[in-house]
């Protein structure tokens, strides 16, 4: 897998605006506080109504 974003035709911005940086930092803090370590993280309720999460790409059981 190639982790170089430019190699897939996407040019990253030279700088991130202060407004976007604040939102990214807030999102990262929230994810850390909730104990989530992967993106995407999907939250859902199971058949008993309990909150569950799936971190990373959904598995075939979803």
Output the radius of gyration. 16 Å
Average of the residue pLDDT scores: 87
Low-pLDDT stretches: none
Q: Structural class, from secondary structure content?
A: alpha+beta
What is the helical fraction, as a range of percent? 25-40%
SSE ordering: HEE
The count of helical stretches stands at 1
For the secondary structure, the number of strands is 2
Q: Termini separation (Å)? A: 24 Å
Main pleated sheet: 2 strands, antiparallel
Which strand order spans the largest sheet, edge to edge or round the barrel?
1-2
* Shape call: flat
InterPro entries: Thioredoxin-like_sf
Please tell me about this protein's structure.
By secondary structure, the protein is of the alpha+beta class. The chain has a domain at 16-55. Helices cover 27% and strands 16% of the residues. The chain has 1 helix and 2 strands; from the N terminus they run H-E-E. The protein has one helix spanning 18-34; strands at 41-45, 51-55. It has a two-stranded antiparallel ribbon. Strand 1 and strand 2 form a beta hairpin. The longest helix has 17 residues, at 18-34. The chain is flat, with a radius of gyration of 16 Å. It starts with 17 loop residues before the first helix and ends in a 7-residue tail after the last strand. The model has no long low-confidence stretch (mean pLDDT 87). InterPro entries: Thioredoxin-like_sf (IPR036249).
């Amino acid at each position: 897998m190639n982790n170089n974003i430019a190699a897939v035709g996407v040019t990253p911005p030279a700088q991130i605006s202060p407004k976007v940086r604040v939102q990214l930092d807030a999102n990262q803090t929230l994810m850390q506080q909730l104990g989530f370590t992967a993106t995407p993280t999907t939250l859902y309720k199971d058949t008993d109504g309990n909150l569950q999460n799936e971190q990373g790409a959904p598995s075939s059981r979803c």
